[in-house]
Amino acid sequence: MSVKFFIGILFVGFILSCSNKKVEEEPELAHYLHLSHTRTNANPLLDATVEKLDFTNYKMLWLGGDLAQLTSADDSTMQHVDRLFDLSNPATLWALGNHDYTDVERVKKFTRKPNYYAYHENGITVVVLDTQDSLSNIVGEQKAFLYGILDSLKNSSHLVVLHHKLIWMYNHPELAQKAKSISNAEIGDCSYCINPNSFYTEIYPKLVELKKSGVEVLCIGGDIGFNANQFEFETEEGIYFLASGIHANEANNKALLFKHRVEERKLSWEFVPLKDL
Questions:
Q1: Which residue spans within 66-116 are E strands per DSSP?
Q2: Gap between the Cα atoms of 155 and 103, Å rounded
Q3: Stronger pLDDT, 16 or 41, i.e. the higher one
Q4: I need a labelling partner for 75 at 20 to 30 A (CA). Which of 62, 106, 148, 238 fits?
């Protein structure tokens, strides 16, 4: 064996060992996907691109509501949606919208979850709210449940509040005037509207307390898609309001993709063209 050949073998071995070490030291990267307003105008069909997506690569799937035209109107539509999103999977989190609300008991049968609940994974706590229940207001038992989570949150680097209606647009000096150009529904008194609500007096202060304690807070809405397909706003207190939604079968649709470096407790996101997922 020549000296040059022996040195070459050592060099290749060194490179391979470095490469293996780099792979071993690579922090765990988890991907989460937020989709919303996937409905068409005819049950049970959803946006054609969404129908073809493979969701198995995402650690969590966050659904912002209005999945089908009348998602819970019959078992066949629910079965179709279930085949796509695996609704009973604990990591499939669904905030109900007005188009999902025909038969809430049918929804529960497929999801095996209540209308509002919390889920914790990889240091992230996700609270799923039902903004359709009391017309954009979080009241009664749901409010008590939310307060219980917010008051006892421990060992979480991030809190994600998943909801359908963009309830944080109401009564905000800057966002309220943008509602018509962002949200599918305007501010008003109808069942699907952004109704007058107490978000800023009863919920937001607790979110600010969490932020001050070191927990990153994101509120993600789903009633978007017709007027805009993405929205992002950071408040003065450092809380993020995000929204993403689809206008069925349009070419420029986007989804909200999250990348989580679990060991580093860092969460980043971007709006990605649906066709590129």
A1: 92-94
A2: 36
A3: 41
A4: 62
